[in-house]
Each structure stands twice: as structure tokens, then as C-alpha cells.
Amino acid sequence: MADKDSKTSPAEFIRQVQTERRKVVWPTREETIRISIFVFIMMVILSLFFLGVDSMFGAVVRWLMTLA
What is the pTM of this model? Predict the structure, then answer.
């Protein structure tokens, strides 16, 4: 590990970046499609959940307004 005060040369930095880039594992097409479908399903479920929560709070606020 380099010392705090020592500077990494631009060439060494590029070498380190290339070394790290070689370690990256990209998902396959099937994994990307599967994850995208999962994200879409979760988005629909959560949007319906928050719609329900928002509607419930709106109904409670309207009810409280009738008491005032």
C-alpha cells in the first residue's frame, strides 16, 4: 500500500484501473432480463402499497376535517 504522502503516477494509476477492470464480471443477458423483470414487479407492488397508504391517510385527513 502506498504511503499517504507518496503520489501515484498517472501510468501506475492507469495500470491499477485496468487491473480492477479485468476483475469486473458482467451479468449475462438472461440475468439482466430476470433482474429487470424482478425490479418491474417490485416497482408495481410498492407503487400499489404506497397508493394504498396514501389513500388511507387521505381518507383519515378528510374524516378529521369533517370533525373540525
Answer: 0.62
For the cut 80, the answer to whether the pLDDT of residue 50 exceeds it is yes
Half-sphere exposure of 24 (CA within 13 A, CB side): 7
The residue to which cell 477492470 is assigned: 21
Of 68 and 56, more confident:
56
Torsion, CA 11, CA 13, CA 19, CA 25, rounded to 10: -130
Q: Which residue intervals of the chain are DSSP H helices?
A: 10-23, 29-67
| Residues 21 and 13: beta-carbon distance below 8 Å | no
Q: Which three cell numbers stand for residue 19?
A: 487491473
